[in-house]
């Protein structure tokens, strides 16, 4: 057996050797030779596969029956009202969010141009990343709401004309389209922005600029989620108070005008908001 002093000396010698080995194998000794295109290739491939799968699911979804196919055209009429209301709200919301994104983008341009970390283009790169992140987040919410409003009536018809399992298949396909839209836009957006904002930049500076992409996406998600939530709760309360309490109409009765507003709120808050939120 070795005496304690010998073990201590061996331990110190091993730590010194490991420290020296670590210092000799720093990043400077092993330069990053992988090209940016190779780095982002998996993300771009994933985005392309997501797009292909979305198109496949979308074709199957729009082949599903609607109200007129089972002699219930009123279902299509009510679905169209909900979709038009959701579109009107989302357009108005995105108009004001566009002003907000423009102002914040200009502020980022000013801040990173006055105090650049890498070079004089820091402000432009950060603003571009912020705008792209916000735009893709809004697009994810918009795409999710569009397919959800189209899938609502098809799910109802599938349950009415078939079984609950048929309706579940339609609803699951609708949700999968929204989910893969978020994944595809996220992978494609981050990969493309890494290539664009990383021109003549090292990895550390590129990753710092990419925080603007996440900031833009989070900004849209926050307002879309909160604004849609406020709208849907207000419409829900209105449907309860005016319809059930004052007029004696059931909450889900189509004779209650607040029912349309309530369902519009569900789409813009729970669907469009949630589409932007995970992005």
Structure description:
- The chain has 279 residues and is an all-alpha fold.
- 81% of the residues lie in helices and 0% in strands.
- The chain contains 7 helices and no strands.
- Helix 3 packs antiparallel against helix 6.
- The termini are far apart.
Shape: flat
The main sheet comes to:
none
Order of helices and strands: HHHHHHH
User: What percent of residues are in strands?
Assistant: under 5%
Radius of gyration: 27 Å
The whole-number mean of residue pLDDT values reads 79
**Beta strand count:** 0
Low-pLDDT residue spans = 10-14, 23-31
N-C termini distance: 60 Å
Helix-strand makeup class: mainly alpha
Number of helices: 7
Question: Helicity range of the residues?
Answer: over 70%
How would you describe this structure in keywords?
flat, 0% strand, 81% helix, 7 helices, 279 residues, mainly alpha
Topology:
Elements: H1 4-24, H2 36-62, H3 73-114, H4 122-161, H5 164-197, H6 203-246, H7 258-276
Helix pairs in contact: 2-5, 3-4, 3-6, 3-7, 4-5, 4-6, 4-7, 5-6, 6-7
How do you describe this structure in short?
The chain has 279 residues and is an all-alpha fold. It has helices at 4-24, 36-62, 73-114, 122-161, 164-197, 203-246, 258-276. The protein has seven helices and no strands.
